[in-house]
Structure formats: C-alpha cells, structure tokens
Amino acid sequence: MPACVLLLAFDKTFDRIYAIDELYERGLTPEAMARAVLQMDRSIKINMGDEVIDNDCPIDGVLDSAAWPDVGLGDESGRGGRAEIMNRLGCRWTPSPKGAGSRVAGVSAVHQRLALKGDGYGGLVVFRNCRNLIRTLPAMVVRSKEPGRH
User: Fold this and answer.
1) Is the four-CA dihedral 14, 63, 97, 130 of positive or negative sign?
2) How many CA atoms, within 13 angstroms, populate the side-chain half-sphere of residue 86?
3) Does the structure show a pLDDT above 80 at 42?
4) Would you tell me how many other CB atoms lie within 10 Å of the CB of residue 5?
5) What is the pLDDT, as a whole number, of residue 149?
6) Other Cβ atoms closer than 10 A to 73
7) For residues 5 and 61, what is the distance between their CA atoms, to the nearest angstrom?
8) Looking at residue 73, what is its pLDDT?
9) What is the pLDDT of residue 46?
C-alpha cells in the first residue's frame, strides 16, 4: 500500500494552504520514510528577503492514527508503531483525530478550502509537482446516506 506525505505551507495573511511537495511511495519502512521526509523537508530553502537560508526547523504534522499502534515492527529498541519509530528519528507527528464522522468532516474541510476566495484563488493551492494529490483529489467525495443524494 502506498504512503503519502504532503508538505504544506500556511499563509496566514491570505488564510491559504499551499501543497508544495509530496512523497508518495510504496513499501517504505518507517525508518526509510522518516529519512525521506526529513531530507525532503530540509531541502526546502527559506527566502528571508535579503538571503536564502537552509530549513532547519523541525518538521511536524498530522499522521493517520492507524500508524500509532504497535504492530510488532519494532526498531532497534524492539518496540513502537510506525509513528513512534518515525518520531524517534526526528519527525514530530501527532495522530489524526478519529471518531464518528471524522472522515466526512475531513473531506468537507478540504472542499471548503478548495472553494474560491474573493481574490479568485482557492484556500488550497496545489503545486503541479504534487501529481498524486492532483490525481487522487477528485475522488474525495462526500456521499449522503440517503439513496440518490450526493
């Protein structure tokens, strides 16, 4: 099964999220995924106006709550779920909230972000190098429980 990590940047001024890059891989161990995510994040340069600096900010974000239970993968310490292993290697993931209606709420939040704002741009802007997000985003639909309604 493929895993996807999106690198997002938030612009507070315009209340806009930019999907700037993605990691979409199959068969990565938690250690390999952590290394790939950290390398990708640190490769992004930060423009300070008068100079461009390396990104040394710790990466953080939300990871599917299914990555947290210990499923017997273990690492050198012999314990831990995927997320815990990745966090020990430098990621700072927190689990996604799960509960009744959480998937529908998440899809609705994405749809709200995609809506155009007064300036003609959406609240979510996806860079063209996020090919898999562009390919899979149209499949994010909310289906009504009532037959015949979408």
Assistant:
1) positive
2) 29
3) yes
4) 22
5) 47
6) 15
7) 10
8) 63
9) 78
Residue in the structure block whose two tokens are 């161990």? 29
Q: How confident is the model at residue 122 (pLDDT cuts 50, 70, 90)?
A: very high
Q: What span, in angstroms and rounded, lies between the C-alpha atoms of 20 and 40?
A: 11
Q: For residues 6 and 42, which has the higher predicted lDDT (pLDDT)?
A: 6
* Rounded Cα–Cα distance for residues 105 and 132 (Å): 22
The Cα–Cα gap between 144 and 135 comes to: 23
Neighbours of 126 (CB within 10 A): 19
Q: Scanning the structure block, which residue is given the tokens 């507070």? A: 12
Among residues 9, 44, 45, 40, which one has the least CA distance to residue 22? 40
Cβ neighbour number for residue 135 with a 10 Å cutoff: 10
8 Å CB contact between 119 and 61: no
Spatial distance between the Cα atoms of 135 and 131, rounded to a whole number of angstroms: 6
Spell out where the chain has E strands.
2-11, 16-26, 45-47, 52-54, 60-63, 92-95, 124-126
User: Residue 28: what residue type?
Assistant: L
